[in-house]
Amino acid sequence: MTQSVSPSDRTPGADSIWWHVYPLGACGAPIHDGDRTQVPRLRMLINWLDYAVDLGATGLLLGPIFDSATHGYDTLDYLCIDPRLGSVEDFDALVEACHAHGMNIMLDGVFSHVSDQYPPLRAVLEAGKDPVSGTPNSPDAPLFHIDWESDGGPYPWFFEGNPDLVRFDHTNARVKDFVQQVMEYWCARGIDGWRLDAAYSVPTEFWADVCDRVRASYPGTFFLGEVIHGDYPAFVGDAHVDTVTQYELWKAMWSSITDKNFFELDWTLKRHGKFLETFVPQTFVGNHDTTRISSLLGADGGLVAQAIIMTLGGTPSIYYGDEQGFTGVKEDRQFGDDAVRPPLPVSPGELLGFGHTTYQALRSLVWLRRKRPWLTRALTTTVAVTNTSYSYRSCALGDDSTFVDVQLSIDEAGTAHALILDEGGHTLWQK
């Protein structure tokens, strides 16, 4: 039996290596057919915790688990586990199991928008407005962005043009109070952090206030903001989050290899180094919104991308299945995410053997990093760069004698290779 680990003994959020799982997909829940039968699918993930720990992960980053209309990012109830995943008791069991394995657990908070079927929103729209004053009849109306003056209205404001996703009004103090209450409810149930979905679409002052409030009640809560473009350090500072998603690095890793242009990666790593002066970026080679790295680069190329991640400063996450070389292409169409959000078998023992080599190679990379915790805040300098070759050194902060050297190359067939050396020039890992 796994020995229980106290919160103070678990790895802090910024120093964690996260295993990122999209629960509705991984647990095989029905997403599109309207079946909302309660099934304790969430408990299936307990079967995978030994696997994640063996891989080297120290945290479980969960995609949406709250009651939602379809894919999880269209919330219906923030205080209820999606019945397709089970009950709050199933969730509690997962939290307990994670902590017993020495793993943190982070939830995906979708606080930018709600489902257009969100009950409080429906009540506001059904109440309508006073025909004389034009004032909304429901006291909850200020919670949402609604255009009450449009002909034929009222019309809710949609999130990024999606008519099934309606925006909260983040300028309203009650929305801050509500999000704080939701976060603290789940913190009280034992979670360790929040991924803030579409954080870029919400005013930074909103996040700053909410994050500060939650930390006052639950010190050490880790906040990861989803930010794609823009001034990452400014967002971290203004929003009072711990980190943001490093999409610049994600793009540079695969496109430098596919385009045979390591100058892009070199430029990005210089920017990455500047980010590390103020915060530790969240790094990844794939997630629930991106084409699988093995589809972009092949299984071996995906491992080279993972080698980059594991030898740079940052808080890495591994998207479930990438450690097995899963493939899947994200498509810009309805249900176009399904291919990158597949079901897992009930337990790791049911995995097919084709991914074993990839798993072992990535496992050795993760443990290479685990043995060198200074890599979380490592400083990286370029040794040499051409279109098809790139060498860099990642040094411990304040200690130039502690480092790893990384040599990347692309051969004539377009295949990427990586070699990692220690301070004595000995090979630590090679692909």
Structure explained in plain terms:
It is a single chain. The protein is an alpha/beta fold and 431 residues long. The chain has one domain (7-376): Glycosidases (TIM Barrel). 30% of the residues lie in helices and 22% in strands. It has eleven helices and 20 strands. The protein has helices at 23-26, 49-55, 88-100, 119-127, 173-188, 204-217, 232-239, 247-258, 262-275, 293-310, 356-370, and strands at residues 18-21, 59-62, 66-68, 75-81, 104-109, 113-115, 146-147, 155-156, 158-159, 162-167, 193-196, 222-225, 243-244, 282-283, 315-319, 379-385, 389-396, 399-410, 416-421, 427-430. It has an eight-stranded parallel beta sheet with strand order 13-12-11-5-2-1-15-14. Helix 5 packs parallel to helix 6, helix 8 (247-258) runs antiparallel to helix 9 (262-275) and helix 10 (293-310) runs parallel beside helix 11. It is globular. The relative contact order is 0.11. The model has no long low-confidence stretch (mean pLDDT 96).
